[in-house]
Amino acid sequence: MKGRVRTVRRGVNAFDLAVDGAFDHLRGRPVPDRVFYAASQLGDFGLIWVILGTVKGLRKGDDLAAALRMTAAMGIESILVNGIIKSFFRRTRPPWDIERPLYVRRPLTSSFPSGHATSAVSAAMMLSEDDDWWPVYVTLAAIVATSRIYVKIHHASDVAGGVAVGLVLGLIGRRLLPATPAP
User: Which residue of 12, 120, 163, 182 lies most exposed, with the fewest beta carbons within 10 A?
Assistant: First the structure.
């Protein structure tokens, strides 16, 4: 069993290094730096998703419930991921003491799974329900999730885990907090 665990860890580490290295050709360029650092900051505390939930509510006829639904979903997601799930894994983040071209908030929680990826995917799934803007939500979710690798706050496998958790939470959120409440 220990041999299998070591093999899996080596595979995960190789995956993390390969994905991180794939971003190296973009890092240090002004436009990608601004885009990914801004996306990372907007993802803090699910801010971008609460804003988009509010915009969606206004677009759909001043539907305050849409904004409240997204705010509640982001709060629940944060408690589950940052308060409970991460405590089981306690994975170390990538080294913090590196030079960064722009500011990024230093997280207090452990690395796995990425809370930004989890909230991005779950929010995009919920926002996309019954909405023609779904490509915008999905694209923003992908940018926010990958920004965490780009700014070297998460390993790629943390983001992959966050995407998986986000898919599950997004499905649950659609069921428990549907865009169009059942009559």
Answer: 182
